[in-house]
Specification:
The relative contact order is 0.06. The protein is extended and about 95 Å long. A hairpin with an 8-residue loop joins β11 and β12. It is built from 19 helices and 16 strands. The strands form 5 sheets. A 5-stranded parallel beta sheet has the order 2-1-3-4-5, with helices on both faces. It starts with 8 loop residues before the first strand and ends in a 5-residue tail after the last helix. α13 crosses α15, α17 packs across α18 and α18 crosses α19. It is an alpha/beta fold. It has 3 domains: 131 residues, Rossmann fold; 173 residues, 3-Layer(aba) Sandwich (Rossmann fold), CATH 3.40.50.300; 138 residues, Helicase, Ruva Protein, domain 3 (Orthogonal Bundle), CATH 1.10.8.
């Protein structure tokens, strides 16, 4: 055996010693080479060493042990790519072996240059397969439960609910305020389901007019309405055998509700302007930031559709009700944006963390994520400080707690517009080290307006 760092590994299984030695000499320097005269020795190597390519004679010691080795080699946890050597006239058996998992075969007497090409292709095939496996694992990490962050009791309960319902066909209704991560939950349900190899298709219902939404969901035939210049399949057909995520489901109009109810009940659709009934196999997950039961009582949402959607409800709590998860979320976002912006930010100062935990986060996780992106972009050191945080976050925490030099600690009565505006301006100036132009950008006002307010409130720019 010849072992060299960073070379692919080749296991040669051949009962003829001269052939084994000749192959070793030819491929030395191109592979780390292991030699075996029989199946038992070969399996000892396969079970103890990572092997990239297995090159085995089809007939060992007069029998067809090569087929047995092939079956055993392809059943281990990380199987090698298998190439067979066979005597002329045994190609039929070799083809049968390929159906059992062999990559290719080559006839004897061996053409070493041709064998070199075959092994190179086999090695490339293994590399592509490995990259595809890593990609699938990365997608699982990205869209599985790992993307949901938090260890609060509320989130632990949600993780368990996701694991329970994901393998089923049940329709799920995800409820929660905007920015709580409803689409991430939907993606997790898809990635942990038997449908994960099919498509996850998302439709944001509030972004489309009723006519466009109907066409978006069910598709349309050519000429069915003005601008329909060609046939178009809808998202139900696009998500066939996969998952369709309907965000802001409470915004759809009455006519579309009727068609959606039929699609859920019968698993069939009709394109706009068409008469053909199309069978679809789609798992629907819906989400809303509204109280659908209240909309049902008000007559704005169909009761029968509500019960079709609300088979398994999942309620996402607002961030203000699970503040123990804020440090975990901050850590994840700091790491993400530091990497994206190539900054050496490793954490936050104590004051900055306290300010972020005092804030109520009306925009939930989406707002927190934007705040950390803002802070990383403005950061000057390895730790985010209070001056790096958005003024709106500091405005609330300082106004309520009286933490800054510009805020009053006399209680809620002091929280008038002038006090809050002064606080915002001071924080923007502090964050930009007195740069009027940059501070105006942070505040969303013109440079002239900021100059005027600084003069009115007698705020020192530095």
């Amino acid at each position: 055996m010849t072992v060299t760092d960073n070379l692919p590994t080749l296991l040669v299984v051949e009962d003829e010693k001269n052939t084994r030695d000749g192959l070793r000499r030819y491929f030395d320097g191109k592979f780390d080479i292991y030699l075996a005269p029989d199946v038992a020795t070969a399996m000892n190597v396969l079970e103890s060493q990572p092997v990239d390519v297995l090159l085995t004679d089809l007939r060992l010691t007069g029998g067809t042990e090569g087929l047995d080795l092939l079956e055993r080699a392809t059943s281990i946890s990380h199987p090698p790519v298998c190439v067979l050597m066979t005597a002329y006239g045994s190609e039929k058996v070799a083809v049968q072996a390929m159906k059992k998992g062999a990559y290719d075969y080559i006839t004897k007497p061996l053409d070493l240059e041709k064998l070199d090409v075959v092994l190179t292709r086999a090695l490339h095939s293994r590399k592509v397969e490995s990259e595809n496996r890593q990609l699938r694992e990365e997608l699982d990490r990205k869209y599985g439960l790992e993307k949901l962050i938090g260890n609060s009791p509320a989130m632990t309960e949600i993780y368990e609910r996701i694991r329970q319902v994901a393998p089923t066909r049940a329709t799920v209704l995800i409820e929660g305020e905007s920015g709580t991560g409803k689409e991430l939950v939907a993606q997790s349900l898809h990635m942990l389901s038997p449908r994960k190899s099919a498509r996850f298709v998302a439709v944001h219902c509030a972004a489309l007019s009723p006519q466009l939404l109907e066409s978006e969901l069910f598709g349309h035939e050519k000429g069915s309405f003005t601008g329909a210049t060609e046939r178009r399949i809808g998202r139900f057909e696009e998500a066939n055998h996969g998952t369709l995520f309907l965000d802001e489901i409470g915004e759809i109009d009455a006519a579309t509700q009727v068609k959606l109810l039929r699609a859920l009940g019968e698993q069939t659709i009709q394109r706009v302007g068409g008469n053909q009934t199309i069978k679809v196999d789609v798992r629907v997950i819906a989400a809303t930031n509204k109280n659908l039961e209240a909309l049902v009582r008000e007559g704005k949402f169909r009761e029968d559709l509500f019960y079709r959607l609300d088979v398994v409800p999942i309620h996402l709590p607002p961030l203000r009700n699970r503040k123990e998860d804020i440090p975990l979320l901050i850590h994840a976002f700091v790491h993400e944006f530091a990497r994206q912006n190539q900054k050496r930010v490793v954490g936050l100062t104590t004051d900055a963390m306290e300010a972020l935990q005092q804030y109520d986060w009306p925009g939930n996780i989406r707002e927190l994520r934007a705040a950390i992106e803002h802070a990383v972009a403005l950061s000057r050191g390895e730790r985010l400080s209070v001056r790096d945080l958005p003024p709106r976050v500091l405005g609330q925490s300082e106004g309520v707690a009286g933490l800054t030099s510009g805020g009053s600690s006399s209680g809620p009565a002091s929280l008038n517009l002038e006090t809050m505006e002064k606080s915002f301006i001071r924080q923007a100036l502090r964050a930009t080290e007195g740069n009027i132009t940059e501070a105006a950008k942070l505040l969303g006002i013109s440079r002239r307006t900021l100059h005027r307010k600084i003069k009115t409130y007698q705020i020192a720019p530095a």
